[in-house]
Amino acid sequence: MARLLIVDDEKSICQMLEIAFRKEGHVVETVCSGEAAKQKIESLVYDIIISDIRMPEVSGIDLLAHARSTSSSAYFILITAVPKVATAVQALNLGAYRYVIKTDTLIEELRVVVARALEEMALREENVRLRRELLRVFAVNNIVGRSRQIDSILEMVRTVAPTTSTVLITGESGTGKELVARAIHEASTRREKAFISINCGAFPETLLESELFGYFKGAFTGADSNKRGIIESAEGGTLFLDEIGETSLSMQVKLLRVLQERKIRPLGGTVDIPVDVRLIASTNRDLSRMVAAREFREDFFYRISVIPVHVPPLRERVEDIEPLAYHFLKKYALQMGRPVRDFAPEALALLRKYSWPGNVRELENAVEHAVAVSADGDGLVRPEQLPHAVTGMPAIEPGAVRIPEEGLDFEMRIALAEKEYLQAALGAANGVRTRAAELLHMSYRSFRHYAKKHGV
User: What's the pTM?
Assistant: First the structure.
């Protein structure tokens, strides 16, 4: 449903259109002069204005100019029985949405035009809503913490965001490096453009190149159509390359060329495409040591680390554990509809005491686990609801398994146990997935399968 204003000095046209659009559920108002329409536009907000062009005193063109001068966002549709090319051009230049000729099919044509306008309006509103949601989720103020280190990171974000310099974010796995990257983007002048993230360690080199640079049909086996690359898709925005330390030396050469020349060449292409993209990279590896070992190009390292930002592990900023825990508690209690509102003192003490080898990600998973297994009660998270890695209790002891009288959700319990072991193994392996797989006595392929299954 939309609010329509119909303007025509022929009363019969107004009545005909009012009947047609009211039947479709729209709120319709009609006036028979441009002057009366000006007063309406100044006092009410309309979604769509349909106006005749040829009217005494105030024409449809005059009314369109007045609507635009009042910052009206209404879709303006002009109708006329005497079409003129010059008038149509003038109308479109002033911002008219459509120009429709009065014929026997006027109502049908206007229905189609109005429907399209409403689709565009809905899309525009959805984009605004999503933008606001993105700002809400990833704004600088939503980086949770009260430690001196977090204050320093926030100050750095505010300082470097307006620049175009490349940023290298370092820190252990799970510390929140992507959140910092998103905060830089949202605080920058590029916030209206795309923020695109890609995990460099998740792709083989050949696939990573085609994803980043795109390709033309026939560039390689399986390239059945043209595809725009991620770099080009991030035009005007920010490209976040996570796990940059996983890229090969040859890929580093290609990315260095992008940074130096601001151009890309899709696979199978012969022409360079200029790009305007800000690069933010992150890694949990020591790139300086990799440079010394000739495992990472020195020129590329200095090019991506113009502005270094280090995110310390959670064990070095224990004062952030409590605010983060409450942040995640509120998040998952709301998502799951659980009446959990606080931590029991004993549970909070365990959270503070634990070393959190998996950092903020492990803390979030621990709180999610606690909320998921909590039962209706006093609304407190208690020690027995925390993962065994946090409490220090063995996961399962012989004869310890008991089935409550009301029964339990077996699939959910098994899934939680699988996820818990994956997280514990990653923590013990300092985020190295191959080592975590070895600790669990499984192949790396099986580990990746379970990690993907549980979102670890």
Answer: 0.59
